[in-house]
Amino acid sequence: MKQTERKHLAIIEAAKEEFITHGFLAANMDRISTEAGVSKRTLYRHFESKEVLFVSVLTIIQESVAENVKYEFDSTMTLTEQLTLITRREADILYSTYGIPLSRTIVMEFLRQPELAINLIKDLYSTKAVTDWFQQAISAGCLVNKNLMVMTNIYISLFQGLLFWPQVMNVLPNSEGQVLEDHIDTIVSVFLASHMIKEI
């Protein structure tokens, strides 16, 4: 890896921690450059503003998720088993890759800058992998053949209603252990009750 690439990644990592710790408004480019071990001039050569850096952090995280997460329909497993595994993986991505603190920063910044939300919301928390699996399940005759976007939105609403919004709003801690498994079971069972034709 070239030195320029190393510096770029160091800035991204430092910025992510800065945004998590201080939020967007209080995030400081001096602290980011110090933590990344680069000069402020180098920082601005890579990212011309704090806004550009914030968007870059989010985009890089999402690109990594989109590149590495794919769900293949498995005809040897039931729909319940498959969607349970998918939902568990989605929860891990939310809590481990994004993290609730960064998610909270994203939500607050979207409220402050609606135009930023419009530009980014279509790319954040990509649902492509889940939607692709739904399409495969429909093709296998296991799910009802309805509008894919509507199906995905229903699933995401269930998922975020139990595992995202209560945590972002500080109403509940991150779900883990049996609580997480119970939530996953609820999401899967409620979704499949409305959309499943057959288990396998």
Quick synopsis:
With 200 residues, the chain is an all-alpha fold.
Helix and strand topology:
Blueprint: H1 3-26, H2 29-36, H3 40-46, H4 50-68, H5 79-98, H6 100-112, H7 114-120, H8 128-139, H9 148-163, H10 165-168, H11 177-195
Helix pairs in contact: 1-2, 1-4, 1-6, 5-11, 6-7, 8-9, 9-11
Summary keywords:
single chain; 200 residues; mainly alpha; Arc Repressor Mutant, subunit A; Tetracycline Repressor, domain 2; 2 domains
Explain how this protein is built:
With 200 residues, the protein is mainly alpha-helical. The chain folds into 2 domains: 1-67, Homeodomain-like (Arc Repressor Mutant, subunit A, Orthogonal Bundle), CATH 1.10.10.60; 69-199, Tetracycline Repressor, domain 2 (Orthogonal Bundle). Helix content is 74%, strand content 0%. The chain is built from 11 helices and no strands. Helix 1 packs across helix 6. The longest helix has 24 residues, at 3-26. The protein is elongated, with a radius of gyration of 19 Å. The model has no long low-confidence stretch (mean pLDDT 89). It comes from Photobacterium aquimaris. Keywords: DNA-binding, Transcription, Transcription regulation. Residues 5-65 form the HTH tetR-type domain.
